[in-house]
What we know:
By secondary structure, the protein is of the alpha+beta class. The chain is built from 2 helices and 12 strands. The protein folds into 2 domains: 5-79; 117-212, Immunoglobulins (Immunoglobulin-like, Sandwich).
Amino acid sequence: MIAGYNTDVKRNGRVFHVQTEDKGAKNPVIETLVYLGGGQIIASRQYSYAGLVVDGKVDDRAVTDLLDSQHRQVMRWIQGGKYDPSGPPPFGATIISERSFDEVVLDFLRSQEGAEPVEIVLAEDVKAVAGSPCAMKILVRGEASSRPVGGAQVSVHLIPPGGSPMKILTATAGPEGTLAARVKCPVDSAGGSLRIEARHGHHTGSLEIPVEAS
Length: 214
């Protein structure tokens, strides 16, 4: 059993507690619970990694990577407003703002220099299923400013269970930092993951999506 994570995330005056744990090889599930306030559970996410269990044993590194990826993804959802009372903001909402022209130019120049770390945001909860196509709408933005990063180089790697990553897509984000992508997960990829990477300047942001069995 892999040790889990417990993290507090602040968003608009509210504190969310994110708990992610591995249930162990006998119950191969990674579970994330989101608590609010006095301990009320407002969301949960489970992922089965049964495909990684062989003769009762499992690759601890692979499970740790999946646990870390799921925990970080849920934290990004919180920071993106998914659990706000009014619901998440529209995809790409940060593209249009009340910034002055000078601020827009300054942000643009900074983004072109690659001075700010980048992160990847998905327009919706993407589900990758072995043997099926997977469509996703990607937004690349600054990690601190949340400003869209145009021209970022985006790649998608397939990480099969126990195998080496394989690049299956390379594309460039548009001027507003957005990209619509579509890939297909091989039939034998259940238990693996899709890793989305965005590179801009000297910075690289990544996001992993578990591949589920059909």
